[in-house]
């Protein structure tokens, strides 16, 4: 059964390893017959949430920038795949800002059920992405119909485009996409 899949790359770096892995996941999902949209936060304007909570009544953010359109796409997707570069063992600022700005979805009839996280980091090891996983898990926990299905961590990727040479990570992210 075809699903509507939204892949969001949060890295701002050119030839980003997390974006390379995200594109592999998108390719896998497309090859499996899913309807896939790919968004990069590079060149997007995302302002910080003001915490006014007007969106809880209007289901729209009062801030007019790219986050509103992306948030709407998040709410209409059945599967979300976030790709995140690990900086200081955490979600990057631009992804955290986007998640905060998706607050209008909380009282809505959002469609997403399955959420995935792909990370890329210079350091290797399961502990490297644990705090980032916890940050995304906290967001997912606010949506009772959603679940964090899988976290795929690509460690040892310290220079731009290094992921292109990692058959292991390319295959793993492709398979993640195929199996959403």
TrEMBL record:
Ranges for domain NADPH-dependent FMN reductase-like: 4-121
SUPFAM superfamilies tied to this protein: Flavoproteins
InterPro entries tied to this protein: Flavoprotein-like_sf, FMN_Rdtase-like_dom, ISF_SsuE-like
Keywords from the named record: Flavoprotein, FMN
Gene3D superfamilies in alphabetical order: 3.40.50.360
A GO molecular function held by the record: oxidoreductase activity
Protein name (record): NADPH-dependent FMN reductase
Pfam families: FMN_red (PF03358)
């Amino acid at each position: 059964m075809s699903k509507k899949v939204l892949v969001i790359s949060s890295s701002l770096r050119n030839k980003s390893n997390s974006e390379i892995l995200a594109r592999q996941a998108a390719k896998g999902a497309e090859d499996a017959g899913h309807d896939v949209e790919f968004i990069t936060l590079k060149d997007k304007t995302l302002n910080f949430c003001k915490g006014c909570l007007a969106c809880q009544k209007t289901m729209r953010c009062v801030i007019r920038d790219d986050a509103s359109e992306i948030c709407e796409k998040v709410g209409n997707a059945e599967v979300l795949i976030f790709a995140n570069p690990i900086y200081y063992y955490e979600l990057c600022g631009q992804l955290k800002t986007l998640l905060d700005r998706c607050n209008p979805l909380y009282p809505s009839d959002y469609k997403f059920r399955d959420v995935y996280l792909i990370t890329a980091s210079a350091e290797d090891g399961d502990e490297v992405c644990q705090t980032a996983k916890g940050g995304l898990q906290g967001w997912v926990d606010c949506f009772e119909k959603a679940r964090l299905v899988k976290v795929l961590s690509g460690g040892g990727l310290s220079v731009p485009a290094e992921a292109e040479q990692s058959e292991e990570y390319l295959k793993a992210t492709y398979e993640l996409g195929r199996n959403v």
